[in-house]
């Protein structure tokens, strides 16, 4: 163990451009969603570049799965910090996020210039979201709610989410599920893990936590006082980035509750963008760039994107120095089990509303959704291929309606 720690601490540090180059290559090629991203990261950073060892990488993944927000982006930020300090973390995020963010901004700006009320290809993008979210529910349920108790937590969460469709309702059930997990789910023995040196002081971590909580509490209050549209957008996306456990597709219901009811984005625009996200590499949270661009062009995209990912930076910086203590406590593992089961339920509710209710209107739509699901699950085609197929098929299906 001591040899391992020493090797990590004495490993030569890299440069910010080096981190940016490596992460940009991943941002251009990492298709397939959060789980696939972690596989790409492992191959690039552990096997090829050898910036960290297998155990250290597993520790980072465990930490980022525990935190709310996009786990794959947080792993990338953490590795960037390990390699080149805080600027390395920023460079890692920019490289991994920029390609998909720019692509989705352009897609949104193109959509704003056309009347797409009856566009068949756009409806095809909405339908493919049904297949993608169904695949996510299936995979997450098998790993995060595999037994009777956690399956029940997921089902109860789905019911409450459908009957109480608000961001606050989701936050309440997540907290409740975590408490239930800590009290009633079994405590597993946690083996000792090797320490990891990140070069972040505990004082910096505490400041980061204070800033994170201060913004989470203060932004809604400022929003009520100022009535600023920009502040409202920043607050909504910051809150989603702060409170979405499970990352990836789980962002769908929470962000929909923030942007559709106020009239910022229509249901059709929302689901079209969500379908388009499946066709680009990089993190699914760049969906925020699309939504911001629909609302307010380039400036809206930038505000929404920064607000969505800012919590990830603050949480990672605030947690890295304390992770060695937290991860060895069985109670935290039980709390996490309860939260993860609730995440499955939230995503299950989203599969019905808004995904299913907005996209499936007749047997043609359902047939296309089944075909897309089969291509994803049985034939294992890349998501971007299935998205293109669904857009073309949607245009054909529209001719029969």
Highlighted features:
17 helices; 0% strand; Chromate transporter; Chr_Tranpt_l_chain; disordered N terminus; mainly alpha; single chain
Task: Explain this structure.
This protein starts with a helix and ends with a helix. Mean pLDDT is 84; it is low at 1-12. It has 401 residues and is mainly α. The protein has one domain. The protein is 77% helix and 0% strand.
Largest beta-sheet characterization: none
H and E order: HHHHHHHHHHHHHHHHH
SS element count, helices: 17
Average predicted confidence as pLDDT: 84
* Poorly predicted regions: 1-12
Instruction: Give the strand content.
Output: under 5%
Helix content: over 70%
Can you describe this structure in just a few lines?
The chain is built from 17 helices and no strands. By secondary structure, the chain is mainly alpha-helical.
Write the topology of this structure:
Layout lengths: L1 H8 L6 H14 L4 H15 L5 H13 L4 H42 L7 H25 L3 H16 L3 H18 L17 H25 L2 H15 L7 H9 L7 H11 L9 H33 L3 H4 L3 H30 L3 H15 L5 H16 L3
Helix pairs in contact: 2-5, 3-5, 4-5, 5-13, 6-12, 6-15, 6-16, 6-17, 7-8, 7-15, 8-15, 9-10, 9-13, 10-11, 10-13, 12-13, 16-17
């Amino acid at each position: 163990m001591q040899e391992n720690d020493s090797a990590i601490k004495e490993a030569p540090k890299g440069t910010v451009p080096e981190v940016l180059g490596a992460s940009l290559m991943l941002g251009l090629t990492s298709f397939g969603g959060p789980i696939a991203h972690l596989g790409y990261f492992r191959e690039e950073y552990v096997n090829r570049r050898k910036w960290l060892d297998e155990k250290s990488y597993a520790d980072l993944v465990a930490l980022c799965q525990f935190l709310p927000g996009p786990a794959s982006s947080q792993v990338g930020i953490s590795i960037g910090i390990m390699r080149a300090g805080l600027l390395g973390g920023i460079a890692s995020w920019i490289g991994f996020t920029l390609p998909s963010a720019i692509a989705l901004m352009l897609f949104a700006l193109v959509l704003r210039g056309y009347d797409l009320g009856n566009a068949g290809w756009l409806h095809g993008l909405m339908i493919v979201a049904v297949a993608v979210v169904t695949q996510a529910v299936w995979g997450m349920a098998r790993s995060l709610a595999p037994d009777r108790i956690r399956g029940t937590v997921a089902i109860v969460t789905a019911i409450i989410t459908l009957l109480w469709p608000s961001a606050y309702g989701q936050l309440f059930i997540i907290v409740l599920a975590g408490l239930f997990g800590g009290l009633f789910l079994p405590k597993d023995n946690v083996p000792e893990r090797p320490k990891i040196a990140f070069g972040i002081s505990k004082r910096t971590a505490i400041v980061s936590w204070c800033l994170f909580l201060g913004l989470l509490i203060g932004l809604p209050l400022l929003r009520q006082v100022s009535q600023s549209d920009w502040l409202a957008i920043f607050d909504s996306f910051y809150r989603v980035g702060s409170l979405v456990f499970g990352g990836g597709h789980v962002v769908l219901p929470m962000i929909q509750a923030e942007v559709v009811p106020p009239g910022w984005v229509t249901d059709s625009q929302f689901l079209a963008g969500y379908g388009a996200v499946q066709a680009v590499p990089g993190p699914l949270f760049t969906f925020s760039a699309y939504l911001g661009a629909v609302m307010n062009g380039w400036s809206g995209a930038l505000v929404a994107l920064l607000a969505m990912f800012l919590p990830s930076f603050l949480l990672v910086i605030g947690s890295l120095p304390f992770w060695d203590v937290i991860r060895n406590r069985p109670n935290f593992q039980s709390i996490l089990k309860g939260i993860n089961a609730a995440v499955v339920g939230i995503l299950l509710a989203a599969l019905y509303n808004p995904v299913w209710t907005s996209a499936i209107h007749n047997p043609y739509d359902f047939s296309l959704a089944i075909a897309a699901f089969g291509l994803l699950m049985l034939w294992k085609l890349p998501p971007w291929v299935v998205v293109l197929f669904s857009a073309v098929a949607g245009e054909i299906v529209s001719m029969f309606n």
